[in-house]
Amino acid sequence: MSSKPLRHSAQPVEAEESGPLAKIVVISGPSGCGKTTLHKALLASPLLRGKLVKSISATTRKKRPGERPGKDYLFLSTKMFEGRIKKGYFLEWEKVFDHYYGTPKEEALELLKKGVNVLLCIDVKGAKTVAQEFPQALKIFIKAPSLKILESRLKSRGSESKESLGLRLKVARRELKEAKHYDHVVINADLNKALGKLQQIVCHELGIVNSLSH
Ligand code: 5GP
Known about the structure:
By secondary structure, this protein is α/β, with parallel strands linked by helices. It is built from 7 helices and 9 strands, in the order βαβββαββαβαβααβα. The strands form 2 sheets. A 5-stranded parallel β-sheet has the order 2-7-1-8-9, with helices on both faces. It has a 4-stranded mixed β-sheet with strand order 4-3-6-5. The relative contact order is 0.21.
């Protein structure tokens, strides 16, 4: 999809009323690396509340138990998603694991204009597109300590069929090669330590004073 032209300003969006420039923060990492748990904890941290807001992606994959439509994802039919692609609704979109995933453009740009940093939890290809359009985006890659550990985490999640598990591991190997293009890599061996590291990076890069790191 990266070859498609995007119809919006490529540069960091200047906040209204000459406020500080807001940034896009991209988090990627293989399925099962813990990025969902980590990004939710990151958003809940008092230092970042109201300063970093997650963009809700649209997807054509089925809702998992416990997921809330409009909060975790916008669940769309393939027809609706493709219609929105044509209308230029997405900042970026990709097919991941045979389903469409995309970042709605309007909402993200509005937040940036208001001076609110926007968090995107997207795959490595989508991250590349965003980085081309927003060179100052902060890119963080999360990974499990090893492929073996990633595999056992995916298995213990119990949500994947054997086929889907194999596919996720294959894609993980490919995605891990992209880690070098990210500004930071966080290894999620211990959830609390990884969260601390993530908070430290994000606060530092967004210029938010992090008393936890002193
Ligand atoms: P899951 O189905 O496990 O929630 O997500 C599968 C993959 O799709 C993950 O790597 C996730 O980061 C990625 N993803 C989720 N939303 C988006 C999006 O809006 N754009 C892109 N490019 N990838 C996404």
